[in-house]
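BUG-274 | component: ligand-complex export | severity: low

The export step for hypoxanthine jobs runs without errors, but we want the raw record kept on the ticket for reference. Input record follows.
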Amino acid sequence: MALSLIGQLQETADFIRNKYNHSPGIGIILGSGLGNLTACMEVELEIGYEQLPHFPVSTVEGHAGRLIFGKLGGKPVVAMAGRFHCYEGYTAQQVVYPIRVMKLLGVNLLLISNAAGGMNEGFRVGDLMILRDHISLFTSNPLLGENPAALGPRFPDMSEPYRKELIVKAQRIASRLNIPVKEGVYAGVTGPSFETRAEYRLLQLGGADAVGMSTVQEVIAAAHMGMDVFAVSIITDMGIRQEDNTITHQEVLEAARKAEPMLTAIFRELVTEL
Ligand code: HPA
């Protein structure tokens, strides 16, 4: 008989525990072009996704595809270098599989980074935006289907998916480090086509400050399991330019790379202070 979801998650977690017998309390997801945070980590073990039983395997340029265990700011963490997206053809359940494994390994706080297009007219390319809330425009919710009670409730509350306390703390850290940060609402879409002018406008009118192709499903799964979440977008392009409105993946990676040191500093300080 096919293994249940919980059974699969347990096998993945057991496989990891056999190789690494520390329990990371903090999980970090590194978005497009944001893999360098691991340079600040004391790395203890790396496991390629392809080695992990039941794990999806990452395909997109800029996503390395491995779990990295070690210390950041003296705290045990596990970082995902490379995440899964629906546009790669994964189901929403596959996209959140690693988050669920993290929970089984003891992760209670998830730090998320992503690249996003800006719609807020006060934003500029290279800005950091702390996520205050999100709008899920994904066609598929990761909690569809059978709900294993061991993971969380059938109808999880989403009134504060991004922990206010962490936002306040991060704002303080950013101001101490002289790093300007914005705060706003992230719209999650499936992609992989970037938005049309009309779509950016619609999202802007709907109250979104930035739009991207990740994060929202990970946050839903994390909230389902009672994890605290803190997330930051790097604004890699502006969706509301009147003239030349083309966007390339290259441009997104480039902008992410430039802003990465600021994001890394905020994550590192936040983890150190916790
Ligand atoms: N739209 C959607 N996803 C993105 C964008 C965008 O403009 N920029 C980076 N990821």
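Assignee comment: Attached the raw record above. The beta strands are 26-30, 42-48, 66-72, 75-81, 109-118, 128-136, 181-188, 210-212, 228-238.
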